[in-house]
Structure formats: structure tokens, C-alpha cells
Amino acid sequence: MSATNSICEQSPEYLAKNLGYHSFPDKFTKQRSIGCIKSPNYFNLPHPMKIKTTLALLPALTLICSGVAHGDEKKGASGIVASFETGVPENFAAQGGKLSVSGDHILDGSKALKWDFKNGDAFTVKTGPLGNVNVWTGYGNYSRSAVIFPLYLAQKGPGHLLVEIRAGEETAATFEVPLVHVGWQKPVFHYSWNSKLKWVNGKLKDKLDNFRISAHGVTGENTAYFDAIFFNDPRDFRDARGPITQSWEPAVHDFSKLPAPTAEDLAKVDAIFKIFNPDPNPNIKREHWEKRVASLKKSIQDQGLQHGNPVKNHYKNFGFLNSIANDWLRCADPEMRKELATCFHTVNDWMQEQGLVVNGSIGKVNNYGGRLYVDAITKMRGPLKEHGNLKTSIDYLKWSYSYDDHIFGDNHHVSMDYFHNEAARLMRIALTHGDPVVRWHHVNQFRDAFGKQLIVSIEPDGGIFHHGFHYYAYGSMGMNDASWLAAVLSRCGMPVPRKSLDSIRNAVEAMIWYSGRTTLWSLNGRNAAGTQGAPTGTIKNLAEAYAPYNDGKPDPYLMSNFLRLAGNHAKNPAYADITPAASPNGNFTMPSAALAVHRRDDWLAGIKAYSKYAGSGESYANANRHGLYMSMGQLELLTHPKELPTVLGSGTRPDEGYDWTAIEGATTIHCPIKGIANGNGSRNPKSGEIFVGGLTNGHNGLFAFTFNTNFTHNIVRNLAADPKQAPKPDNLTALKTWFCFDNRIICLGSNISISGVDYPVRTNLFQKFLTAEHSTTQLNGESLTLADQAITRDETQAATLIDPYGNAYITPAETPVHLRISEQKSRNNNDTKDTTGKYSTAWIEHGKNPKDAAYEYAVLVQPTDEDLKSFTAKQPYQVLKKDATAHIVHDAPSNTTGYVIFQKEAELPTDRTLKSVAQPCLVMIAEHADHFTVSLTNPDARLQAKEPQPVTITLNGELTSADESSPATLETKDGSTQLTVPVLHGESVIIRLKKPKPLSNTEAETEVKDSSAKEAAAPAKESERPASPLANYRWIIAGLLIVAIAIVAKLLGKRK
């Protein structure tokens, strides 16, 4: 099954279950709230059942909205649903022209309001008070108070209709409807949010109670129809649209000056079309199709999917049309095919009359909502052409999907939804053109635009942005569809440029780094159940897309990783010559995502922060509601199952009693869950900090996080008895760093400060779910297993903890640690139910309102007994500095020193290689026998920057480059080396520098003489003298001489 079929060609039941598409009863007979909580769903798909004009909005019939009311706190009005079925309602009064009801053009029921008018005529609607027109509600708080005013104009002409929204006889706001479009149109104006209404007197907003419609500049007689009017109803802010002001026609493209496609070229396009639209199946008997056609006709009749009925749910109808189109494709019987085509035309013609046309009242259907309709029209290209309706259908699709802008324009924008929902549909629209030559040109142009879109949409480090941050949930869907489409084009001989495939590869290779069987939890956004899987299908698709550039074979590296992550395919004979890849090992950074990944064996450790550029995640009221801290310094260990670890398998269970304030590695305010709960809006916090990011030398790495969150304000307000009177606390701030060497992660924190919050601040070591297999925690050698009573320990001395999953945490004496093993109560990630779970949780307590608090601990990921014994016997690392200016750590086993320099004036250790820096930066220096490996960066991701900035450091010793192609500029002077490298987006730059060769005896004597002469000529203070090339060896030589003398003396003593 192709990706398109598996994702897009789904039943209406699937859509209702998974995408929020719902059908409604035929009639509403009860009162409807004008600011009701039953607002449109996520994409604000317009109500499938269009309620008749809402009238008599009585103040007594009010209902408090669940949404956030911006401005006043008034209630939204409720109204009685009126019908035009029995005539013109009493509160509609004509001051010119004639009001009546008609079944000629309807949106709901069997009648609509008809107004025959000429210039100067008018009518009024006494709605009664509209209530609160400042409501924000619904999914993500996307729906805001609006007037929805569908109307059908019978003929074009000069002039316009003026719609006045009034309070008594005073006009508050207006909008105009030019007489330029025949058919249904549906203006949607929001009252307060980004309102496009022309406000005459905004002070009347809370007094609105009637509408007046009048004709101006009209010549001759005309007719308008009105139906399904909502005078005050929350609608998605993206649904706003004004009246039609001019006719729309698709662009006309002249291909005559371009090279004509060959027969081979046309065959390639036909091959693509067949992938989207398979051949008929002659094995299906006529009897089956006769029953099917009869069933379709009955559904059309029973559901009113034909002329004379309103469109109740066009999204459901799209699924119905697509099912007919699928039948037509599969049917090989010519007569039955005609019957199926007739069923299709009956429904499609009716929907187009109801407004499924350019500028029509149904509006644009694209993104998630329009996919099935595009699929249906593409499949029915032939019958639509015969029916004379192909151009109308194609024009509508081009209008809905902004086809010409996407395919022939240069404005390519970053959007994962483009790949997931639009790219394949744009390809289908291109394939729908009737003329084969024109079709080829459109498909070829699509290929070019698609390739460019890939390049601009993916960050160089593999970042896939959606909603303003690296968002795996959306990005993985986008890359899955993009790689599938790229594979289709390659398979049919029309591959996108290799540069475009390499862009997808950047994203996919990053995914390989941050995925086990599942991806890191911190990247899941509002999909916080912890179950988002690795992108196996994407990897396979992309491997196949590379075939034209790899002698017709899939990319071997990608295929081997596909087999590693999708182990069930490893035994497939088709892949017998491919060996599954080993898990990546090393250290990997993504500046655009504020992410670092450290891997050894099959486990991975992810460090995720947020910054000016990288959001901390996404929360809605009903999705990841309490995930405030998920990307605020989480140190996430995926360790189990061992070969392909998962979030849940590694002890993080978001929907089983998880303490959302105890995110591992993060420094958090430990408060009741209500304090960190998101409201009704979309929460995607960023900070103003730019010194956030990682550094790698390929093998090891470090990460810096300038933590500064103002969400302390929300916490205090959420927990206050009177939120309006809640005091305003300071931000929670901290400097947090992680130094990653092999399986050792050294975690430092300093300058942890806050005031004005009456809850303790903690740095969380671990929070692990207890299972039968993973039930024991060790503290300084004592095994602790939960029984009937909770276990608590407060360790004030140096401590060694081993969590139930085998990771060790070592704290020094100056960092007291607390442990609790107990059952926890919480809420699930969607905040729909209470949850419980048994956990082992450890943390460092900083107390309430700490000032410049600090911490230090080391994590050993999956250590062996020997690892742990060796570590505790002799600590292998040394913290050289930990204050507001710098965090510096030396790791003895790797002979590497890591520097996080927050302030360029920081005093650096004088006995190390790094002497000074010209700016805040990250530096790692690994010393080898004959060279140094120096890696450095400025972690400021500068995502919009076009030119690199220099990062300059100064090293002790006169060093030379070991790489001819090095991007570094070196300048040696007075025993020091100034090193400058260009950094564009926070990427790590790795330089190898040769050590100076040891001096021979003659060279040493000369050096000493020269040095003595210089000192005699110009004596200087010791602190001012430049270091000579021998400086690094003098104390070593002196030490060796002392040892030698002692040995000789001892030997002489024995002889005596």
C-alpha cells in the first residue's frame, strides 16, 4: 500500500475518529449558544449542519463560554433557532424590495430567505442582544467570535450590498458585498480578533442587537438569497474571509516556447498517474458492481446528496465521492463504470451548485480537509472531461490550494503541512490536466517547485520546523510523504535534484540519531504519550529515492538503518544482501532545535532546552496540558529495551501517575499540577536567551543552557485564591551545563535564583516507573524496593544512586540528594483522567526562593560493575570552575577539557591549554600524543543569518594546523596561538592542531641562552613573561630529576 493510500484514502469513519470530522443531526430544535463551547474542531471545519438563521438572541438565554474572554467577562448569548420553512420570520422587515422564502438556492432545509431588490432597497433583522463578541474558545483557543453571512447573488452588476451591524439605530460596524459573483459566498468577519469589519463606533460592541442590509449603486433589479447566517459564533481565526470583490481565474501558462516533451517523457507522467490511480480489476464480477451501484444510489437518496438538499457535511461527502472514484477505478465493466460515474456527477454537481466552486460559500478546502476531494477529482479525470465539468473542478482545486503560487511562484515557505497534506495533492492536480503535453509541463514544473521547497524547509542540521520549532510529530509526517513522493518521482524517471534529496537526508539522519524504537519524548510536542515511533518508512522511501544517483540501487546506508530500526524486515529475502546498521555512536548536536544527543552502544541520552529560536514544546488545554518543563533542560535516557529503546520502556510513563514537575534533568518549581497547567490557548514558550546549544567533537560533547523562564507568573496566578491579586514573581533563572564523555555525563548548575514563589525549586535526577523487572533502587549500596509503605531518604553526604533501569547518579557531599519511592497520583497528558503509578524519584532540593543556588552530579549511563567501582574509587573528572562566568570540567580518561564560557572576561585556569576567548563561546580541547583536537562554537543559532560570524580563542603554545583544508585562521605570537573560525548557525567547528616538537639538547641549550639573554636585557615580572616552548615541560623535568635523585640515594643507602 502506498503512503498516499495508507494516509489519505480513508473512510468517513476513519476521518471522524482520527481527524475530528463529525456529522450532525439534520435539524437543531434546541437553543444554540452563540458563544458556545461546541465550536468548530481543530481545523475549524465549518459546521457540517448549517443551522438556519439564528434569531431572537435573548439576554435571558445565555450560557457562559468555556473559552477565554478577552476584554469583558460577559456571557455569550444563546438564541432560538428559527426556520424559513414556514415563511419570513417576524423580526425580518423590508424597507424596500420584497422578502420571501424560496427553494431555488438553499444551504439548509428546503427554503432560504429570498430578497428581490433594486437600488435603495433595504431590510432589517432584529436579532436581540448579540452578547459577548470577544470570545476565544475551542481547540487551541483558535475560535473567536465572528459573524458568518452566507449569501447567493443571482446576477452580476454594478453596486454593492451594505451590511450594517447596529445598536438600535446607531451603526457600529459595516462591510460591503460587491455584486461581482453569481452563486453562494460566505463572508466570515471576526468581531474583535484582527477584525476586518469597518468599525464606525467600536464603543457599541457590547450593545449590538440588529443588522441592516441595503442596496447601493445597483442598476436594474436583482435577487439575493440568505441562509445559514450566524450572527455571533466562534470560528477559527484562519477561516476569516471577506466578500468576493473580483472574479478569480487560474493563471494561463504558455509552454509553447519550452522544449516539447518526448514520447518517453509522456510515458513517465503516465507511470506516475498509474501509481496514484491503479488499473481496473477484471476479476470483480458484474453482480458485485450492480449491488454497489444500487447501494450508492440509495445512499444518495437517503442522505440527500443531490439537488434540493443542503450540504450538511462536505468533508464526509468528500469521502463518499472518493469511495465512488475508487470503485470506478477498480471496475472493468464499461456499463457499470458509466453508472458509477453518474453517481459521482450527481453528488459533485450538487455540491458545486451549493458553493464548491471558486469563491463559493464552502470556501477553500485544503490541508487535511481537502485531501480526499483532490484524490476523487484526480481519479475521475476522464469522466469529468466527458461530463464537461473538468475545468470547473480543476479551477476550484487550484484556487483552494493556491496551485499557481506553489508551483509557478518563487515564494517557497517553511511548512511541514505542505509535505504532509499539500505536496501530493498539488501533484495530483498537475496530473488532472486533460491534455498530455500540458500535463507533462505541469508535472515537470511541480517537480522543480517540490525540490526547491525541500531545500528551504529543512534546516542544515536536520531541523524540521512546524508551529515555530523543531516538531517531530509534524516533521516526521511531512518527511514520510516527502520521501514517498520523491521515491515515486525517482521510480518513474523524474527524480528531484540530488541537492533536494540531501535536504531530506539531513532531517532523516538527525532522526536516526535521536531515535531508538521511539524518538526522544522531549521532541513530541503536544503528542506527549511517549509513543512516537522511529521513521522507518521515511528512511526506506528516501533510500529508494536515491536510486537514480546510485546506479539504480537504494542508498546502502539508509537501507541498513531501515533494517536496524524495522527489525521485522531484516529476514526479508529481498534484503538478504544488506546488513542492518549498528546504532550510531558519538555525540550529535542540533543548534536549531537546542538539542544534543550522546550515544554509546544502543542507548541514547538526549539533552533538550529552549531558547529565542527553539520552543520548549506545545501544549493545548486537551493535549500535553502539563508539559511545561519537557524541553526546559530535560536529560532523557533511552536505555530499554536494550537494542531499540523506547520512552515507555526506559521508565517514563506520561499517562501513568507521572509527576509533571519532576522532568529528569530539569530545574523546576515543585508545585501542585494546577500551577503548570496550560489554559485554553496554545502554549509554546520561547525565551529571549541565545546562549543555548551544544558542542561536539564527534565523539564527546557538551551542552549549555541559559535558563530564564517567566512562566513563574502563570504558576503563581494559577495557584492564587484570587488570580487578579496574585503577586508578580521574578523569573526562574539558572545556568545549566552537561559534559558528555563516553558513558559519563557531568551535570552542573549555578546561579539558580527566583523570588516570589512559595514552592521549592528542585533539580530532578530521575523519575522512573516501577515494574516487576525494574523495581529496585540502590542508595549507597542499599537495595530499596517498594512494598506497602512509601520509602524516603534524605542523603546529606556524598551519594551513589542506581535507578531501577541501571543508570547511576553520583553526587558530592556538597550536593544533598533526596529519594522517594512511592505511588504517585497525577493526570494524563491530555488532562482527561486521573492516573496513578509507582515511581522511584530522586532530586536535589534548592528550597524556596533560592539565590544563586548550585548543584553538581554525574550520571553513568548503563555502567558495568567495573565502571562504577572505578568511578567511585577515583573520580575521573574535575570541576575546574562553576560560576556565573564559566563552567569548566576536565575529564581524565579522555584527557579532554570542556569550557562553557558565559562571559568573555571569565578567569580561566592557567595550567590549561585555553588561555582566553574573545566572546562567550563553547570550547572543547582533547589532548593527544602529538596534537590537540579543538572544537568550538558560538551556540547562538542565528537561524535567519546569512553570513558567518568569527569565533576567536587564544591557546597557550605556538601551534600549527594539522589539516590543510581547515577553516581556521591561526596567528602565533609570544608563545600563544590565536585561533579564529567562522560559525553560521551554532554548528560545531573541529580543528586539529599539531603540538610543537620537543627540542633537542642543542636546541634546548640555545633556547635557554636566548631566554636568559632576553631576561637580562628586559627583566619582567613573572606573571608578565610570555610562555616559552619549554614552559609546558619544565616542571615535569624538574619532577623527574627529583624522583631520579631519590632513587639513587635509596640505592646508595642499601649498599651501605
TrEMBL record:
| Top-level taxon | Bacteria
Q: What is this protein called?
A: Chondroitin sulfate ABC lyase
Give the family per the record.
Belongs to the polysaccharide lyase 8 family.
Question: Repeat: is it a keyword of this entry?
Answer: no
Where in the numbering of this chain does the Polysaccharide lyase family 8 central domain appear? Answer: 595-860
Q: Which UniProt keywords apply?
A: Lyase, Membrane, Transmembrane, Transmembrane helix
| Domain (Lyase catalytic): residue spans on this chain | 318-568
* Transmembrane segment boundaries: 1033-1053
Native organism: Oceaniferula spumae
